[in-house]
Amino acid sequence: MNQILKAQSHVLSRRSFLMTVGGLGIAVSFGTLADLAYGATMAAVAEGEFRPNAWITIGGDGTVSIIAPAVEMGQGITTTLPLLVAEELDADWNRVRVVQAPSDAETYGNPGFYGVQLTGGSESTRGYHALLRLTGAQTRLILLAGAAGMLNVPVRELNTEPHRVLHPSSGRSLDYGEIAAKAVLPDPLPQAAETDLKPSDRWRYIGSRTIGRIDVPSKVNGTAIFGIDVQLPGMLYGAVLRAPVQDEGPQTIDDAEARKVPGVTHIVPLPYGVGIIGETVEATKRAKDLLNVTWSTTSRVRSYTSQRLLDEYRAVGRDLEQQGLSAHANGDAEAAITGAARVIEVDYMSDHVAHATMEPMNATALVTGDRVEIWAPTQGPTGTQGFAAEVVGTTPDKVKVNTTFVGGGFGRKAEADFIVDAVSLAKAVQGRPVKVIWSREDDVRYDKFRPLEAQHVRVGLDAEGNIIGWRHRIVADSIFARTLPPVFEQAGGHDDVVTEGAKFNYAVPAHQIEYLRQDNGLAIGFWFAVGVGYTRFAIECVIDEIAAARDMDPLALRLELLKDQPRARKVIETVAQMADWDRARNGQALGLAYSDAFGSHCAQVAEVSLNRETGVIRVHKVWCAIDPGVAIQPLHIEAMMMTGITNGTGHALFEQINVIDGEVQESNFDTYRVIRMSEAPEIEVAVVPTPGSPFGGIGQAGLPPTGPAIANAVARLTGGVRLRHYPFTPERVKAALDS
């Protein structure tokens, strides 16, 4: 399917333009029109407006409205993607406004995600860039054709500068607004192909460091609308009491005291809990606390205890007779290891982690008969339509999704449980919108955590210390088995998100990756960098262990293993220079790690110190060099690296979810430990693009190297003490020091 979508994006025909005209959206103004207008809809084409396709509308005043197909959750994508269109259109950026795409996967679906509307996986730029650049280029050709008719000259005599079509020989020109007011859509439409795209030496916007993010001003002045900010006439509020163990439901409900709370209007039994609807948030919260519910006791998740299971996962990984599904095989790694002069065999593990987004789960829904309208900070409008339709018993085309700003997503808001809450309660009070806001405690306890996992890595070295075989076994549950069963089944039970990042570009003659799925019932989900966050932890720490075994500088070893990878070498050499790698530190040490995940090359050096008495690690500074291929917005890339590094530091040192007998032990930031501002390292980022390379993903590229860089620094500081279990809690650090 991906191949079909990619092929379709190369040439946009007149039919494809006309077939996709129309649709409503949420308007966002920027540039010289800096005020956000969330809640406004994109009206039908008015007199004097020109809409050559579903992505672009040009007003008679010259304002160019561009659809932003991806969801803004702090990663700057609603600037990046429209900027690609504006570049090829030769639009004046100060006369552009962005319109959030409506829920319409047929028109605005991401080619990188099988055509659905979903933001995640660092796939937005990689999925949309070809389509959007061609859309801008073809619209420019349409404007040129329209201007040729108005000026009565051959189109070949015309060219463009920002927002104008020029006829150099006569000195005449037309503003895009003038063309929009009078142009006739040419028939046939001019065709745009890759040869019509601007060469990089003519780019005005791509690579610029002067263009700010369009979402930032509203977030600073407080006018930005997140899901939690939505207010509608006649709105009610909702809360849901969930079972303490997943997959249990209410058996008996005593709601007598809850119904006495002033402002409570409805108590709604649900298959998975009890819903409360009221006039205020406070009323629903009070009533929720007063419910007396007897829960079922049949869920197999009641036997889920994370630490016990992690020990089992480690044992499974070590049992080499137990074959896993092959995720990658280059040569016979085990045969090579069997004949090796030396074998390094280690286990790396990661606990569950929660998303803990700053904006907790929330959604507002209005149900009227078989029609549903939703206002939500969702990463997946297409999934939202499907789940809402299922709750109401209607079809997805009758569900309208208004996507707001997302106050932190990290994969959590690609889920639909909070959507189902709002729609289920709104169904009970048809005609009135209901807003559901999860408490922080519910947000942590009922999250879809990153998988619990254990990795067993076996590496064979020859007599000279060269790697001759690498076997990597990943033991974890599947995300796709729950979220995308057809993809999981089509892959024969393999989950390439869980094993993502295990395939590397180091020069190893025999490399084997195995996936050993463990199904214990707990729903797990996508989390910032997902599999790459832990697979690179194991890989990059093992590289340092090999370097130590060879008595070799870990920087030199990586450069040796990447001798045919110029982009990889460039970021490693750059970050080493930034950090002054060879300079001795007093009481501190440097650690290095590298990743090529998401199509971007990223190397980091972490400077750490360690209190041996308490086991507390302090990360003082992290240097980062990132090669995204084409750097569309370098300043934004720097900001995303800082986000990834800060998050990566916190998750490596602190973040941990413990499940005992199916019940999550953590509930809020007092028990689920996240990084504090005082603990955040100083960060220095260098963006080192490679012209002519593919567009890489950036949203998650900064996190994977951070943890292993910290662990490798601790090993250098302590003479070889290895930290192999995320997070590096003080207790685990002290145990490693004492072992």
From TrEMBL:
<dbReference type="GO" id="GO:0047121">
    <property type="term" value="F:isoquinoline 1-oxidoreductase activity"/>
</dbReference>
<dbReference type="InterPro" id="IPR046867">
    <property type="entry name" value="AldOxase/xan_DH_MoCoBD2"/>
</dbReference>
<feature type="domain" description="Aldehyde oxidase/xanthine dehydrogenase a/b hammerhead">
    <location>
        <begin position="221"/>
        <end position="299"/>
    </location>
</feature>
<dbReference type="InterPro" id="IPR006311">
    <property type="entry name" value="TAT_signal"/>
</dbReference>
<dbReference type="InterPro" id="IPR036856">
    <property type="entry name" value="Ald_Oxase/Xan_DH_a/b_sf"/>
</dbReference>
<dbReference type="InterPro" id="IPR012368">
    <property type="entry name" value="OxRdtase_Mopterin-bd_su_IorB"/>
</dbReference>
<dbReference type="InterPro" id="IPR008274">
    <property type="entry name" value="AldOxase/xan_DH_MoCoBD1"/>
</dbReference>
<keyword id="KW-0560">Oxidoreductase</keyword>
<dbReference type="Pfam" id="PF02738">
    <property type="entry name" value="MoCoBD_1"/>
</dbReference>
<dbReference type="Pfam" id="PF20256">
    <property type="entry name" value="MoCoBD_2"/>
</dbReference>
<dbReference type="InterPro" id="IPR037165">
    <property type="entry name" value="AldOxase/xan_DH_Mopterin-bd_sf"/>
</dbReference>
<protein>
    <submittedName>
        <fullName>Isoquinoline 1-oxidoreductase beta subunit</fullName>
        <ecNumber>1.3.99.16</ecNumber>
    </submittedName>
</protein>
<dbReference type="InterPro" id="IPR000674">
    <property type="entry name" value="Ald_Oxase/Xan_DH_a/b"/>
</dbReference>
<dbReference type="InterPro" id="IPR052516">
    <property type="entry name" value="N-heterocyclic_Hydroxylase"/>
</dbReference>
